[in-house]
Amino acid sequence: LNRRKGVSMARTLAAAALLLCTILGSISPSECFSLSLARLPSLGNRIGARGARRGGVVGGRMQSTSPPKTSDAYRFEAVGDSLPTRDSGKVSWPRLAPSRFTHPLDTQATRALKRLPFAETLVRQGFGGMVEQAIYLDNLSNSVRVGPKQLPDIYEMLQEAKEILGLSSLSVDIFVRQNPAPNAYTMAMQGQKPFIVLHSSLISLLSKEELQAVIAHELGHLKCEHGVWITLSNIITVFASQLPGNLGRTLGETFSASTLRWLRAAELSCDRAALLVAQDPRVVVSVIMKLSGGGAGFGQDLNPEDYARQARDFEQESERSWMFRRMREAMTSQLSHPLPVERVRELDKYAKSSDYRILLNSGTPIGGK
Q1: 218 is a catalytic site residue
Q2: What is its cofactor (predicted)?
Q3: Which of 107, 222, 271, 303 could form a disulfide with 62, with the two C-beta atoms 3.0–4.6 Å apart?
Q4: Domain of 353?
Q5: Is the dihedral of CA 293, 294, 299, 303 positive or negative?
Q6: pLDDT tens, 341-367?
Q7: What is the mean pLDDT of residues 125-142?
Q8: Residue 11 lies in a domain
């Protein structure tokens, strides 16, 4: 009986893999983004790193709902190739849905996995919950927990970012951990103990506005529940790759490529979450720039506008010929985060889009009802 159940489960997971890979087949390579080192990773991505090299999920185009009517409440203008600027106070979205800002590939991948019966329960109440608790205890024992009386500036950054992203009711801990490598991560599951970890060197490197953007990026992973769905993706990948013969190998390879594309898109979604909190693309671009080539001694001399132009130059150069496009794909095919310049270019485009402008105009002032 147990063997029959195992065979049935394998067939179900294989069917799920085929379904997701079929959805992925509607996406051309030019619509997917290439990857880079995990500079602002979620722990959910880190936990699935091994599986991500061989594990996967889907893509597609986001089906948008009717947006609210735009208004002149929030003036938003880009001059030439310059990054957009804001000229009013911050706004928030108490009922912000992830679909309002997520990358299309991220949205489609999540929707596909939500169709699998009992899959979410398996991750939340099984493997995911145990890992989340273990990592939480590790940070509780080896890090400094932020609170109203412990690093209060960082605590206030978190509270404002939660309000802006419609997460005020979610209890999230921040831990500061001694580490010379600038980094941040989250469990990204919205389980019993959601938390964010900031390395001490990251706090030293960034301004207050930039540090809040990093916190917002990690809150984006929590908002989108990336840990749940990426963990499930890796579970399906492992089962699919164990199928006999060429079928298992083909599914494993296809799923691996699709998961990596999803991981890239998930990071782009969270860069958008960072922008929604900063409401100034220069702040988020500056974070990416400093993590790429910044330092405590010359951070003030770095120019986000010039780095955005560098990102545009990279896009133009890499699209000059078929060979350059292939080189770009080869650079990134096995990585889980977009290249820094591609993150900046994507953020630049999103910050100038009507979707972002409409979203800003639909918000309410910070502290408003």
Answers
A1: yes
A2: Zn(2+)
A3: 107
A4: 37-63+78-365
A5: positive
A6: 999 999 999 999 999 999 999 999 986
A7: 80
A8: no
